[in-house]
Amino acid sequence: MSGEPWLILPTYNEAENIEPIVRAAGQVLAGAAPEGFRVLVVDDGSPDGTGQLAEQLASEYEWVSVLHRSQKGGIGPAYLAGFSHALQAGAGYVMEMDSDFSHDPADLARLLEAVRGGADVALGSRYVPGGGVSNWGLLRRFISEGGSTYARWVLGLKVKDLTGGFKCFRAQVLEQIHFDSVRSRGYAFQVELTYRAVQADFRVVEVPIVFRDRERGQSKMSWRIAVEAMWLVPLLRFR
Predict the structure, then answer these.
(1) How far apart are CA 121 and CA 109, in angstroms?
(2) CA torsion, points 133, 220, 66, 58, in degrees to nearest 10?
(3) Percent helix, strand and coil across the chain, each rounded to 5?
(4) CA proximity to 209, closest of 76, 77, 40, 95
(5) Residues 153-157: contacts with CB within 8 Å, 24+ apart?
(6) For residues 5 and 142, what is the distance between their CA atoms, to the nearest angstrom?
(7) Spatial separation of the C-alpha atoms in residues 73 and 45, rounded to whole Å
(8) Which tens digits make up the pLDDT trace of 153-188?
(9) Is residue 64 a contact partner of residue 22, using CB atoms and an 8 Å limit?
């Protein structure tokens, strides 16, 4: 398949993480995609200077680019902007990953390999054999596992980790599921992408990963994001 893999990194106040995460991701992708790759930082006007640090990286590495958005609009809209930019630039594969090292950059190679090996979507999964979470309290574990179980039950899917945000798509998948019409912002955004892919008969595979809680910076998780998923998921099924 023609087209480079693009990694989309959404950021808001990630000044402590942006440089090491970009460098780590670039090192992994250089080995996994020696023919070329791109890393796109989508910054929502971070007041801590994340966007400026990303620009410095873009001046250092030709494979880094930065998309600036004027204000914080949620992770869903940030990804949509990044997906659109990558596809317009001719991406063959589009990857998404958190910018705080919750997702291990080393796993990028495994996700890309899974899609190149025949999957249409490779999903980094915490809830299949070999996957898991680290440094989580009981409440967060309950919310995450409960959210995935709830979404799986309502939507009638077999995918175990529906709320996960570590994915690799074939470019055609995003184009055919009309990603630009997705309006969810948090957990529900990730659920909706996977649901649309399954409904369109694309092959979704789960690749086991270990999710680790961030060590630097502040979590963007909130009750509002969880509540959004609770009421939006049924709408996906009965829309």
Answers:
(1) 14
(2) -60
(3) 45, 20, 35
(4) 95
(5) 154/233, 154/234, 154/236, 154/237, 155/191, 155/195, 155/233, 155/236, 155/237, 156/237, 157/194, 157/195, 157/198
(6) 34
(7) 10
(8) 888 899 999 888 999 999 999 999 998 888 776 668
(9) yes
